[in-house]
Design brief:
alpha+beta, 6 strands
């Protein structure tokens, strides 16, 4: 789609997350599970306020697919800035893309693509989001 996920300017939402000691693997760098958690932090701080504003508690999201590219080593201690943006809104799903940057630097250590499915927690099935949410999410896709 032509978006460079390694550039900060590609993202519309940001959250900072502290790297924890237990995010390290035996080699001494941040492990793959921690990187998935960073992407989770990015997507949930981005999408849940919008869901609260436009949908309410009767709507949830579930992760259907995640792709992570590990670009550079990341070490403890420190922080990461996680950028997020909407790239696709479907009938019952959406795609968010992410960039994970070392602290406040321009160094991108990882990128991710997450497909989320809107979920009805009572019926326990996928569902279409309210049109107000779908429309708002669609308006966030840069043209």
């Amino acid at each position: 789609e032509g978006i460079d996920l390694t550039v900060r300017a590609s993202f519309q939402h940001w959250v900072t997350h502290t790297i924890r000691y237990n995010d390290q693997d035996p080699v001494g760098h941040v492990n793959n599970a921690a990187m998935a958690t960073f992407l989770e932090q990015g997507r949930t701080t981005f999408i849940y306020p919008l869901m609260s504003e436009f949908a309410g508690p009767e709507l949830e999201i579930v992760l259907a697919r995640i792709l992570i590219d590990y670009l550079r080593e990341l070490k403890f201690p420190g922080t990461v800035d996680i950028g997020s943006r909407v790239t696709r809104v479907g009938t019952k799903s959406l795609t968010l893309t992410h960039g994970v940057f070392e602290g406040e630097t321009e160094t991108c250590v990882s990128t991710g693509i997450c497909t989320l499915v809107f979920f009805d927690p009572v019926k326990r099935t996928s569902t279409a989001p309210p049109e107000a949410l779908r429309s708002h999410l669609g308006s966030l896709i840069p043209t």
